[in-house]
Amino acid sequence: MAAALPVIAAVLAVCASALAGLSQASALPPDLAARFYGFFLLQYPLFTFALIYALARIVAMAATGTASLPRRIAGALAGAALLLALGLYPTFGGLVLRAGFATGGMTFLTYQPMNAAFAIGAAASAFVFGSALAVSRILIGGGASAPSWGRRLAIGLFRCGTGFLALWFAFAVIGQAHPAGFGPWPRRAMSAGEAGMGMSLVLAAFLPHAILVWLALRDRSRRKKPDTLSVAD
Prior knowledge:
Elements: H1 4-20, H2 30-36, H3 39-43, H4 47-64, H5 69-88, H6 94-109, H7 114-140, H8 149-174, H9 192-220
């Protein structure tokens, strides 16, 4: 459940947004609207639900950690603050989407194919996004360690690598929301069909990462010493 709940939370958030009729017409304080609505939300609307996935993942890490309760609470709060700063400052998208957009754009300007530019941009966004999750894992503490430093390092590198690949896939999927037929949200409220498409894309995007988390948690249950850290844990 600790691995599945973040995916469920993100999918349900798409459903809730559709049922509530949320769109740019929804009333927000002017300062908040100016920071939230804009280019990156229009181009990458499903990143909204990627943030929800990550926040729920941080909560799940704190709930299943074995460190002291004060450390888990403080670590979760600090990790969530870091994630929101990277994802929303100075406006929606933050450094996460700006890193991908800038990297992909520069790649395209060097006469590389658009597909290559998109893939490299998705990788840059995934790296920043995954770094926030990895730092949150470190701050929360309470992972499980291998019996030796060599094995611990090997496991950590493997999980960081596979976690990055899973998030790279996730950002590639959510970056193709409009071409896949998701629709013009948030220019207007989602239709039922668009909500179904959004839920399917979010599920497909983050399911591989959730599976890696489940495998990491299953492995951790077999160990007794804390400290294994990874993007996917």
